[in-house]
Amino acid sequence: MSLGEVMTYPHDVPPAPASTRPAPSSQDATPPSDTPAATTARAPRARGTGAPTLAADLRGALMLSVRRIRTERTDDALPDHQYSVLALLDRLGPSTPGALADAEHVQPPTMTRTIAALVEAGVATKEPHPQDGRQVLVRTTDDGTALLQATRRRRDEWLTRRLAGLDAHERAVLAEAATILRRVVAP
Length: 187
Prior knowledge:
There is one protein chain. This protein has helices at residues 51-70, 80-92, 97-104, 108-120, 142-164, 168-185, and strands spanning 124-128, 136-140. The protein contains six helices and two strands. It is mainly α. It is globular and about 55 Å long. Strands 1-2 form a two-stranded antiparallel ribbon.
């Protein structure tokens, strides 16, 4: 499998029942070789718009998308869980280990180990808390910020290349979907 291919997992994308599969059409023909679909397995069609069915379809598509995008990282990239904490620090600014553990939904000892690994990698630092001497604040270093920027740039470049193979209508649908998905996952 090349980097341009999307990995599919049967448990993530359930097959549509035979009775709901659309009949083949001329649009189902093999796409030209310069489109994203030409280098990937044919994606399953959405099975419906009812909330439970749509939820399963979206979950599968989003999980596959995230997995594929995560493969686009810098050569010296951190493991996913460490990168996630570093990105969180970048968004939140200096934070306590407890606040980071809460935000990542992990236990404090797990976050302590992750922070230690980030500090050892030189992408984060710990410093005394200005108001509470029992606490520390964790923040990104310049190297950590550079790593985040390089990884984000690489991921954006990959996704830009993939989106360029879509037609204007498909890109408009995805733009609207991005807005809707942000609303769906908002607290």
